[in-house]
Task: structure prediction
Amino acid sequence: MDMHKEAAISGEKVELLKAALSKLRSLGIEKSAVISRDGTMLAADVPPGEEHKIYAAMYAAMLGSAEGAASELRLGVPRRVVMDVGKKKVIVEGAGPMALIVALVGSAQYQKAAPDIDRVASEVKAIMAK
Result:
């Protein structure tokens, strides 16, 4: 993770965010990250050697675009965007006004994982509000 970007939030918050993401891993979610709404990687739980910060802005744009489209259609604010990729799903879910969660899960595990992602998104929202 780029230390310059991480400095935007306290080290304590980064550690709390990483702990929240580790809960997702223990529940079977393969990879996850917390990203700011402007596309900055804040914390990630990915295998060593993997870097995803270049995609952080794209995930933020995905959710932002969905929110804009839903607003235009007067449907309310979408909670998440789900992208099917092969036998996997990439879930981008809002976690309050300052952050979002990105999670990678097997398609077969999606229904079971969605409530867990919701719970961690609520936890991330509370951490970011501190």
Summary: The beta strands are 31-36, 41-45, 80-85, 88-94, 99-106. The first strand starts at residue 31 and ends at 36.
